[in-house]
Design a protein that fits this description.
The chain has 420 residues and is α/β, with parallel strands linked by helices. It is built from 15 helices and 14 strands. The chain is 37% helix and 15% strand. Strands 3-4-2-5-6-1-7 form a seven-stranded parallel sheet, sandwiched between helices. A seven-stranded parallel sheet has the order 10-11-9-12-13-8-14, sandwiched between helices. The chain binds adenosine monophosphate (AMP).
């Protein structure tokens, strides 16, 4: 089905098609084909889809159509509000909307607002209004408290990664924002998972929604080869260096458990002449943005990250993800390896398994119903044996259920807290 059959208005279609063609989208993805016609008819939508499914364009294109021919007021009214859980996702969604709206006759004004940076420029930026605001809930509340933005005329509300938003403890903020929105509006709800709390939130804010569930089709399923390599914990950096060189990895995202480890591993790689950067919640927002930009532009070869980078970030053609430290939960494992194999590309996800973390890895395998061959690399064969108490590998706290622990919530809250 081509983009032209999705029900766009004849007035808006040429402007949108030009941007779609420029971005190289040949045909709608499954979620776009399923959701866009309903959204264009004004229906509420509740959608579940895999990461990398193209959901941003699914909600952005209809929102942009609304702006075509809309009266140009001096202080633009916020017509579209997109709520996202993290700063990185906010920036990424904002960029996509701008790219898709590039050829609209009246350039859409897209304001991207998130915490961790000074609020003043954002307030200044909003002075002349905005057509679409992309925001993290906490910063939007701050801006509402400062009367810097008015959301009473919003026609379309998007909740992106709603599950993550609740995980991060944004429930209260969401409720406050929902109260300030007009009752008569279109709501689009995207979530990777549908736990009871997510269902309840969807039910409370959606009116007769169109349900879109994109099951992984064979061709749509991410093509990720999962591997596990047995290695002694102290030999992991050497092994990483060896693999980068031997397997000729052009770009690799390496996950570690702590900020400290991110710094140390990146530093060691740099000393071995590998262009590596750490990426974690304690870096300034400016530095984080820079690292991501350089990584996307292929100016950095290795990014060593904490789980901050595991969700929502879309790095085109990322061939390899390495779990240097295993993730704490099976859910985090999915998000980490999902950074590769996006948008139809194939990818490799490698987990380093030491004697101490072997039992933890078994649990991850069990949760995912997979069983990987534990490879050994010549020169790095492990000699360590599992410690008697292997219940808490790498101090990682053991595998967790789906519910975030208090510690998780705190860590998440810290991550969202302004850095200044
Ligand atoms: P998203 O799930 O919105 O993060 O999108 C994942 C990736 O798919 C992004 O790099 C998009 O630019 C890309 N994408 C979105 N729609 C299409 C399409 N119809 N054809 C090809 N790529 C697309």
């Amino acid at each position: 089905m081509p983009f032209t059959s999705l029900g766009f208005s004849p007035t808006a279609l040429p402007f949108l098609s030009r941007a779609i063609a420029e971005l190289g989208y040949l045909a709608p993805t499954a979620i776009q084909a399923a959701a866009i016609p309903g959204i264009l008819q004004g229906r509420d939508v509740v959608a579940s889809a895999q990461t990398g499914s193209g959901k941003t364009a699914a909600f952005a294109l209809p929102m942009l159509q609304q702006l075509v021919g809309a009266p140009l007021t001096k202080t633009r009214t916020v017509r579209g509000l997109v709520l996202v859980p993290t700063r990185e996702l906010a920036a990424q969604v904002g960029e996509s909307i701008v790219a898709l709206g590039k050829y609209l006759p009246q350039h859409p004004k897209v304001a991207v607002v998130f915490g961790g940076v000074s609020i003043n420029p954002q307030m200044m930026g909003l002075r002349t209004g905005a057509d679409i605001v992309v925001a993290t809930p906490g910063r939007l509340i701050d801006l509402l408290d400062h009367n810097a933005v008015k959301i009473s005329d919003v026609q379309t509300l998007v909740l992106d990664e709603a599950d993550r938003m609740l995980d991060l403890g944004f429930g209260e903020e969401l409720n406050r924002i929902l109260e300030l929105l007009p009752v008569k509006r279109q709501s689009l709800f995207f979530s990777a998972t549908f736990a009871p709390a997510i269902e309840a939130l969807a039910n409370s804010m959606l009116h007769d929604p169109l349900r879109v569930e994109i099951k992984a089709e064979p061709e749509g399923e991410p093509d990720i080869t999962q591997r596990a390599i047995a290695v002694d914990a102290p030999g992991r950096t050497q092994l990483l260096r060896h693999l980068i060189q031997a397997e000729k990895w052009t770009r690799v995202l390496v996950f570690v458990a702590t900020k400290h480890a991110a710094e140390i591993v990146a530093d060691k790689l740099r000393k071995a002449d590998i262009n590596a950067e750490p990426f974690h919640g304690e870096l300034s927002q400016g530095k984080r943005t820079q690292v991501l930009m350089d990584f996307k532009a292929k100016a950095v070869q290795v990014v060593v990250a904490t789980d901050v980078a595991a969700r929502g970030i879309d790095i085109k053609e990322l061939p390899v993800v390495v779990n240097y430290d295993l993730p704490r939960s099976a859910v985090d494992y999915t998000h980490r390896i999902g950074r590769t194999g996006r948008a139809g590309q194939s990818g490799i996800a490698i987990s380093f398994v030491s004697a101490a973390s072997a039992s933890h890895f078994k649990l991850i395998e069990k949760r995912h119903a997979i069983k990987l061959v534990l490879e050994e690399v010549a020169g790095f064969e492990p000699v360590e044996v599992a410690p008697v108490n292997a219940a808490d590998p790498q101090g990682a706290g053991g595998i967790k259920g789906k519910r975030p622990s208090k510690k998780d919530k705190l860590r998440a809250a810290n991550f969202e807290k302004p850095l200044s």
